Amino acid sequence: MDFIQITPPVAYENAVISCPFKKKSNETRFRVPSRLALSSSKCGQPDAILDVIDNSAMKPEVNFTVCLHKALFLKYNNSNELVEWIEMNRILGAQRFLIYNFTGGSALTPFLQHYVNEGLVELHDWPVGTFWQEIPEYMGQGALINDCIYKAMYKSKYLMQLDVDEVMVPQREDSWEKALAKEKNCQGKNIMLARNSFFLKNYLYKNNNNDMSSKKYKSDKNKNLSGIEFLDLTYRPNFTHPCPIRTKILMRPEFVRSAGVHYVYEHSDGNLNTFCCLSPDDFRLHHYRFWKLSMKDAWLNEVKGEKKYDERWENMVEHPRMMHFKEELVRNVNRIRQIAPSSII
């Protein structure tokens, strides 16, 4: 049994349990059992009996699956953000989304149901029960991430693990597929990491937290913006986190045994924590959030030893890459909003 790492410390453990079985000498491939019994002792009564799902002979149904790597829970009811995130990733090449719901808000329901009916979203319950109060921030995130990997394995050629305020954006091409074909650093690699850049909400809004139910702009001229944050938030610090700090993963899931938020812990062949860093000139993780620290503080907390501090990191630079997708994104988001306009938050 291998425990899945997660930070900060939490009051539960996530684990990947391996049950190896041997292939007979005259067999060309493993004979897969139909059920698996789990027991805490060698000859004890089973604690659980699980059906075995073997997808290893499948051909991938889709090229790109995106996993929302945190469950929807009590505090989250931002249908605007969720719709914009799904539609932006869809433009870039997402053909399937894996989303887990614990107690997401009612404003999300009509949109999630539409996407489920369309076959775009697989919506899974995340029944963490009463012990969620011990982990209100992470909701068993380590287990969820790895459940995503195994659900996508053999069904999808590639899997991305992202939060709802993140998009892995190709910087020179219109899609992930085209960008991967031309990216030079990681040709032929199965585990790739995209480097993080913050696009700051506090540069645009007076609000100093993530409660965006009533947006207050810093300048009146901003009131005429599109209202889609991926398009309106075009400024970032002149700093890109070094790999693998705050990276997100683009993987071939069948080559991964266990992973965390920012990188893979173990490959399916037993290799530990090996990866390839995508060039930020080709792929960049756009992370849209409030950020109160200076880049010097970020350097002291996260980056020290990786890079020498540079005062130019504090400068804000305009990065309007998302405007390339504006027309299609606005059209698609407005179309989806018509499903339940009164539910948009």
From TrEMBL:
InterPro entries, alphabetized: Glyco_transf_92 (IPR008166)
Superkingdom assignment: Eukaryota
Pfam families reported for this sequence: Glyco_transf_92
Listed EC numbers: 2.4.1.-
Organism the protein comes from: Capitella teleta (Polychaete worm)
Any one GO cellular component localisation term in the record: cytoplasm
Protein family according to the UniProt entry: Belongs to the glycosyltransferase 92 family.
Name of the featured protein: Glycosyltransferase family 92 protein
Compartments it resides in: Membrane
Membrane topology: Single-pass membrane protein
Keywords recorded for this protein, A-Z: Glycosyltransferase, Membrane, Transferase, Transmembrane, Transmembrane helix
Primary location class: membrane
A GO molecular function held by the record: glycosyltransferase activity
Enzyme kind, highest EC tier: transferase
